[in-house]
Amino acid sequence: MLTTLGALLLSLVPHAASADAVKLGSLTFERCELTQPRSAATTAAWCAPFSQAENRALPDGRQIAFRLALIRSDAATVADDPLVLLAGGPGQAATESWPQVAAALAPARRTRHVILLDQRGTGGSNALRCDEVAEQGGDVRQAALAQAVDVERAQALTRRCLSSLVGRADPAQYTTSAAVEDLEALRQALGAPQLNLVGISYGTRLAQQYARRYPAGVRSLVLDGVAPNEVVLGADFARSLDEALRARFALCTADSACAARFGDVYADLYTLREKLRQKAQPVSLRDPLTFAALAHELDADTFAGLVRLYAYTPETAALLPLAIHEAANGNAAPLMGQASLISSDLGATLTSGMGLSVICSEDADLLQPRPEDAALILGDDFIRAVRAQCAIWPRGVRPEDFHMALQSDLPSLLLSGQYDPVTPPRYGEQVARGLSHARHLVAPGQGHNVIGRGCIPRLVARFIEKLETAELDAGCIADLGPTPFFLDYNGASP
After folding, report:
1. Are 124 and 94 a contacting pair, CB within 8 Å?
2. Is 429 helix (H, G, I), strand (E, B) or coil?
C-alpha cells in the first residue's frame, strides 16, 4: 500500500522532511491522529491525501478519497523499502487495525516505515458501512443475533444496506482486484519502490493477488493466517472449524483434570447442539458493558456461531469446555456474555458492505453446500446465507486467473496457528508449494493470526531484514503452546 521511495527520500534527503511535513514522491504527509472505533485512544501518524476513481473505466467519475497514513521509523537511517499492512476481514481497515498489530511489527519498524492505506470500502476510504450491521457492536442480544444465520433476515439487511449506499458508492467496484490497482497507483505516486507486504487473514489474498500482478513491486511477503487463491471463501468454514475444535478438545481429554471436570467436550458440543435444535434455551444475564438486565434465547444456530467466535484465539478457546458445560446444565449466560464482548469489538471494525462486495464478486458463484458439512457444528448455514445475500448484492469483475495458485520466487514467510478454525495450517502448506523461496511456520497451540505471539515478531523482523527462509532459526516457536483450559471461572488448575 505504500512505497519505498518515501522511505528513501526520508532517509537520504533530509530537506524532504520537516517538523510538520514529509514529502514522499508526489505526496506530502502531515502530522495527524488515527482514531479507533469505540475508543478514545488515538495513534500519532503522518497522513497524506490520495484519491482514485471508483470505477477506473470512468476516470472522470466519482472519486474515492482514501485514508493514507505513515507510521515513521525512529531510525537515523531508514531502509528504502517500507512495510505495508494489508488488513483482514474482508472489511477491516489498515489504520484501524494498526493498534492490534503495532507491537507485532515493532521490531521490523525499527529500520522501516509502515504504510497504512485503508482499502476501498473500509475505514476512511468511503466505507461501505451499514447502520443495520452496526448492531453487531451493540448489546448481548444483538451480538448473539449477529452469530445466528437467518437467511430471510440476512436478505432484508442486505437490501437495506444496498439502499443506504445509493448515490455514494457502486458496490461492484470494491473488489480485491480494484484494491490491487489502488495499491499499485499509490506505489507509483511514491516513486515505485519495492514493498514488504504484511497480509493478515483476508489481507493474504490481497497480497497474493498484488504479487501476481506486480511482482517487481514486491520485496517480500509475510502472510499470517494464509488464504490460498484457490480457496473459495466460506466453502471450507464448517470443516475447518470442526477440525480445530476436535483437536483442541482432544487436549482436554488428554488432561486428567480437564477430563475429570468436563468429560468428552467434543461429544457434549454436539449433544447440546441437538438439544437446542429441539428447544431453545432461555438466557437471563446482565450486559457486560451496560449491566442492563437481558432476556434472550440460545438456539442451535446462535450456539454454533458463538462457538466459532470463541475458537479464534487460544484464550477464548480455553473457556469453551467450561462454557459448553455450563450451557448444557442450563446456564448459557457466561457463553453469551463473553461472546458479546468479542463480537462488539469485531463488529466495530468490520465493514459489512465491503465484505459482501468481495465475496459476492469473487466467491459466491462457486459456493455450493456440501452434504458432508450438514452434520458439522457450523453446517452449511453460512453458504446458504452468502448465496442469498449475493443474489441481491451487485457483483464486480473477477479476473480469469483469480483463483489460480500463486507461483513465485519472492521471499515469503507464511504463518499459521496450529488450531486456526478458519485458515488452518494446511492452507499455508498449500500456498508454500507454489513459492520457491518460502518458509511456513506453524505456531503450536495458537489460533487465527499469530504474528504477535511469542518470538514471532522477532522472526518476522529478521526475515524482512535478511530475507532468510530456510536459514531462519525459528526454534523459539516451540515455546508457544495452548492456553490451559479454564476448569472454573478462576482459571486452570494450579
Report:
1. no
2. helix
**Helix segments in 110-175, DSSP class H:** 140-147, 151-164
The model's confidence at residue 14, banded by pLDDT at 50, 70 and 90, is very low
Look-up: residue for cell 493498534? 99
* Structural domain for 10, as ranges: 5-128+161-233+399-479
Residue 313 lies in a domain: no
What are the pLDDT digits (tens) for 177-193?
Answer: 999 999 999 999 999 99
* Distance from C-alpha of 333 to C-alpha of 323, rounded to nearest angstrom: 9
CATH number at residue 438: 3.40.50.1820
Residue 334 has phi, psi (to 5 degrees) of: -60, -45
353 touches 130 (CB < 8 A): yes
- 172 residue type, one letter: A
State the pLDDT confidence band at 289, using cuts at 50, 70 and 90.
low
Task: Note the pLDDT of residue 145.
Answer: 44
Closest CA to 215 of 184, 175, 178, 174: 184
Q: How far apart are CA 133 and CA 76, in angstroms?
A: 45
Band of residue 152 on the pLDDT scale cut at 50, 70, 90 = confident
**Residue 218: helix, strand or coil by DSSP?**
strand
pTM of the full predicted structure? Answer: 0.91
pLDDT of residue 137: 39
* Phi, psi dihedral angles at 163 (to 5 degrees): -65, -35
Domain count, the chain: 1
- Average pLDDT value over all residues in the chain: 89
Cell of 266: 467434543
Name the percent of the chain lying above pLDDT 90. Answer: 74
Residue type, 110: R
The torsion angles phi and psi of 396, rounded to 5 degrees, stand at: -90, -175
Structural domain includes residue 413: yes
Q: Is 245 within a domain?
A: no
Phi, psi values for residue 66, rounded to 5°: -85, 150
On whether residue 172 sits in a domain, the answer given is yes
Handedness of CA 143, 148, 152, 155 (dihedral sign): positive
Cβ atoms of 1 and 180 within 8 Å: the answer is: no
How many other CB atoms are there within 10 angstroms of residue 437's CB atom? 14
In angstroms, rounded to a whole number, what is the distance separating the alpha carbons of residues 459 and 222? Answer: 11
By C-alpha distance, which of 225, 196, 241 is closest to 451? 225
**What per-residue string of b and e applies to 139-163 under the rule 16 or more CB within 10 Å gives b?**
bbbbbbbbbbbeeeebeebbeebbe
The DSSP H or E segment spanning 9 is helix 5-12
Cα(269)–Cα(308) distance, integer angstroms = 12
